[in-house]
């Protein structure tokens, strides 16, 4: 995600000079009140920033989602079939779901007792499930996706201006489909998007089929790589889909609302060049396709939805397009092990902006100093966040990027490239934490390099700007 800290600053200004923190997450889901007999509300999977999300003991391996929608209204109907492995003995299955009303749940094809309580969908199996058991859950639901606000953004399935799109970072996916809504539990996806004639649906993954009947069109997509729920991208509207020549075997396509000015489209015409630069630093691109989906909302912030990044309907520089492309490696392929480690996403994508500037022959010393100056304007903290308002601040972006540059100066370009590629390859399709990245640094570049990095990672104060900058 690009420039999230700007929105935080604006929100604080709106709340007034006495505001101490960003508005917390808000959902239209009913509060936890009475819990039906036989059910219990779990404590969550233990994420340090979003402790109520997720459920211990579950590994969702695949989501098969059928969603019927109409951008002229704000309701939808859906059916989600989840393939799950029990990681521990389960007397109850708990999913995150603050969305439309559930009408039925099938466990391995048989009706199961369920309850929606707060932002959880609770299911009772007819008999306890042993650790290692593989099973499927089919959930049918219909209604209006929940209103969910976090860090000043509306998240989830959003319908406005004759279009619908998903925007879920960090915790909005469970407003429109039942899921284990933490990036630690990545899964593959199959999508079937049913929309009225005259509208086009695009989504993360590769289109595998399309059929029309009775005034509607169903388009199918496959995303075989394990992906975080927040990174699932869907857009429905009156769209122009532009296909570009493939780059290094990667299919390129963009989706623009009809009438999008050329000035908004321009930065995405250079994605093939950007792919060439980033693969040289990060290693092979981790997906089969890439492109941009432009929304109608000019105020939106860009988001790294997998294989099809989401962008606002306004002019922006190439660095924004580059930033979201970099997230396909760091954020989408390598997922977060905890939201506290979001600098592993944002710091890496911000540093990619410098790599692109270097490729174009620009003097990057000014960019490095601007990053440092941005950090001096806020309270210093270590890279690992301790609260939600810190997730998308200058520390996650600029301090994270400067930390990588310090490493590069310490070990040289060749070793730095090996660190980036080793980290991307070792954790592709998996989640990682700060300690995992530091282990890669030590393994590739040695303990001396790691020691030089630690004040930038763990130090409570901002280290001085190195003279080499």
Spell out the key features of this protein.
globular; 9 helices; single chain; about 475 residues; eight-stranded mixed beta sheet; six-stranded antiparallel beta sheet; alpha+beta; about 30% strand; metalloaminopeptidase activity; Neutral Protease, domain 2
In summary, what is this structure?
By secondary structure, the protein is an alpha+beta fold. The chain is 26% helix and 30% strand. The longest helix is centred in the last third of the chain and has 33 residues, at 394-426.
Element layout with pairings:
Blueprint: H1 4-15, E1 26-27, E2 58-69, E3 76-86, E4 93-96, E5 101-107, E6 110-111, E7 113-117, E8 120-124, E9 134-143, E10 148-150, E11 153-160, E12 163-167, E13 187-196, E14 200-203, E15 206-213, E16 216-227, E17 234-237, E18 239-247, E19 250-257, H2 262-265, H3 271-282, E20 289-290, E21 292-294, E22 309-311, H4 318-326, E23 335-336, H5 343-359, H6 365-376, H7 394-426, E24 431-432, H8 434-445, H9 447-458
Parallel strand pairs: 2-13, 19-20, 21-22, 23-24
Antiparallel strand pairs: 1-10, 2-3, 3-9, 4-8, 5-6, 5-9, 7-8, 10-11, 11-12, 12-17, 13-16, 14-17, 15-16, 18-19
